# Entry
Amino acid sequence: MNFFPKLLIFFLSLICSMPLLAQPTPMKFGDIKMSDLKMEKFEADPDAAAIILGDFGEVDFELGRGYTEYTRHRRIKILNKAGFDWADISIGYAARGGKIINIKGMTYVLDGGKMVEHKLDKKTIIDEEVNKNYNQKKISMPAVKEGCIIEYIYTVISENYIVPDWYFQTSEPILHYTEL
# Structure
């Protein structure tokens, strides 16, 4: 009779010790489709100023270490000048126990039929205090012009176990999907 609880504990600990398999990342940084770069307008919404090509996030709760790690990867096609605002990014984080790491950004433009990459210069990233509890990093993507694609990725680390806000719809259409 004492055998069943021990067997149950054994199988539960075996299952809990198995690594959880996450879905593969749906887009790789820098893997830009030429068809996306050549796109001049979005047929489903001809008035769109920009298109979200991909917006993916991942949250890891580091329970043993006492923090949350949140990584976001976003890719946006700028169709016209009205979409330039998408190239100015603000990333908020907690002033106490928070930080942003691994910021990487790139602007892709078509020049003479070839893709040209413009890397985000980390010296241009501005860190500012919003209030005593909240800071933000401001990024302006380089070489933004009509028809370009901007792409950026970053990680926010917070001592609080907070899941960031996530919006599955935006003012502009989403060509692929968004997921957290």
